[in-house]
């Protein structure tokens, strides 16, 4: 373990089991270094932040800084990804993936301000988050050393961590009964572990903490109108609000109707498959609204290109490459496409589904006169024959060659 040159460490701190143990462990193993706790408020449950400063100080931190990053998270991280339509492996709305680079960036900024020597995180050696944190550290402050306790210490289980804290008389709300690993922010909440470790086990009620089950959702549907400008949600039910406020409003409605639940097995970057239950109620509604406006506004080639951008962006974000030229390039292309994505969509919420049932846009390419199945005076059906003949010309030439 290399401790040379490390006297002040800024730790990405949540107050959970892992980071509660990390503070005393750092002081014991890094020459009684100064440990500063950094807490990012990205919209997690309010009770997660109650008493977090006192907890950090009791654990041995010299100071605890809490940064309100909620608006920045949604405006500068979530919304840009939404424009691309990114869904990792077709379903995951990247809640944890989008949050980590912001947390790491703010952590780096604090470390530089305080003159720290090193950065520390509580991500395990099996997960994606270690890559996301450290890739950001490298991009923004490569001169700072990185401490990753899960790759160094001999604490290998929840029981060992609880015993470690008990011996040192450090309080924690964690217990052996709380067997799920959760990550929450304004965008989503994820649940892993427990019964979910076997993909044959059906998720139970304990695996879902934010949304109603579709079975228990209201029997009456509810309509919500979403306003979109430049590929971004700007209003809910006619009321213009900030990105974070729009998400908060849609989260309440979506959770009520059981919207945004997925139960998936995903491929982690490190090569391990993992299972998780994700709840993204407001985000699912936003995605439905944006894609609804796109259907009206984008021509076929632009829509195809936007889908390709979303596919690539999903991997870039999932892999933690936020502060990379590739992400900036993809984002520039998505911003260009989104400049005409303006309109209004009515979303029907019912029993876990968010369905766009009405949509309009001043930039719509949809024309009822051309699209009608009734009689019209604007489209000559006979013109289609020449188009098809040219479109299939290569197939005609190939067939003639084969006959020869």
TrEMBL record:
It is found in: Cytoplasm. L-citrulline binds at residues 92, 97, 128, 132, 181, 190, 266, 278. The lineage of its organism: Bacteria, Pseudomonadati, Pseudomonadota, Gammaproteobacteria, Enterobacterales. It comes from the Bacteria. One of its GO terms (cellular component) is cytoplasm. Keywords: Amino-acid biosynthesis, Arginine biosynthesis, ATP-binding, Cytoplasm, Ligase, Nucleotide-binding. ATP binds at residues 12-20, 40, 122. Residues 8-171 form the Arginosuccinate synthase-like N-terminal domain. This is Argininosuccinate synthase. It catalyses: L-citrulline + L-aspartate + ATP = 2-(N(omega)-L-arginino)succinate + AMP + diphosphate + H(+). Its main location: cytoplasm. InterPro entries: Arginosuc_syn_C, Arginosuc_syn_N, Arginosuc_synth, Arginosuc_synth_CS, Arginosuc_synth_type_1_subfam, AS_cat/multimer_dom_body, Rossmann-like_a/b/a_fold. Pfam families: Arginosuc_syn_C, Arginosuc_synth. It is an enzyme of class 6 (ligase). The gene is argG. It comes from Hafnia alvei FB1.
């Amino acid at each position: 373990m290399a401790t040379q040159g490390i006297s002040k460490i800024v730790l990405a701190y949540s107050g959970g089991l892992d980071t509660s143990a990390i503070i005393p462990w750092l002081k014991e193993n890094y020459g009684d270094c100064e440990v500063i706790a950094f807490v990012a408020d990205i919209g997690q449950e309010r009770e997660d932040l109650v008493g977090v400063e006192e907890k950090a100080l009791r654990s041995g931190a010299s100071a605890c800084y809490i940064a309100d990053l909620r608006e920045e998270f949604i405006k500068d991280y979530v919304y840009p990804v939404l424009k691309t339509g990114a869904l990792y492996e077709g379903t995951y709305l990247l809640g944890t993936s989008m949050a980590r680079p912001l947390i790491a960036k703010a952590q780096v900024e604090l470390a530089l301000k305080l003159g720290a020597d090193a950065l520390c995180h509580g991500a395990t050696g099996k997960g994606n988050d270690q890559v996301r944190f450290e890739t950001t550290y490298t991009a923004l402050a490569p001169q700072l050393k990185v401490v990753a306790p899960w790759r160094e210490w001999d604490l290998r289980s929840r029981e060992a961590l609880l015993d470690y804290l008990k011996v040192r008389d450090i309080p924690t709300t964690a217990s052996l009964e709380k067997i799920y690993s959760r990550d929450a922010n304004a965008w989503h909440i994820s649940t892993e572990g427990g019964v979910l470790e076997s993909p044959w086990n059906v998720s139970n009620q304990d695996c879902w903490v934010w949304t109603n089950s579709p079975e228990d959702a209201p029997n009456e549907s509810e309509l919500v109108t979403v306003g979109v400008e430049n590929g971004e949600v700007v209003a809910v039910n006619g009321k213009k609000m900030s990105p974070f406020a729009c998400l908060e409003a849609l989260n309440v409605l979506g959770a009520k109707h059981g919207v945004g639940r997925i139960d998936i097995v995903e491929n982690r970057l490190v090569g391990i498959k993992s299972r998780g239950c994700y709840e993204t109620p407001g985000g699912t509604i936003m995605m439905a609204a944006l894609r609804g406006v796109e259907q009206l506004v984008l021509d076929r080639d632009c829509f195809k290109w936007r889908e390709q951008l979303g596919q690539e962006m999903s991997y870039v974000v999932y892999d933690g490459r936020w502060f990379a030229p590739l992400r900036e390039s993809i984002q520039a292309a998505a911003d260009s496409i989104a400049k005409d994505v303006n309109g209004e969509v009515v979303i029907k919420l019912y029993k876990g589904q968010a369905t766009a049932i009405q949509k309009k846009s001043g930039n719509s390419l949809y024309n009822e006169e051309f699209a009608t199945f009734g009689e019209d005076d604007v489209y000559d059906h006979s013109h289609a024959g020449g188009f098809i003949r040219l479109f299939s010309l290569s197939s005609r030439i190939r067939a003639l060659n084969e006959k020869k």
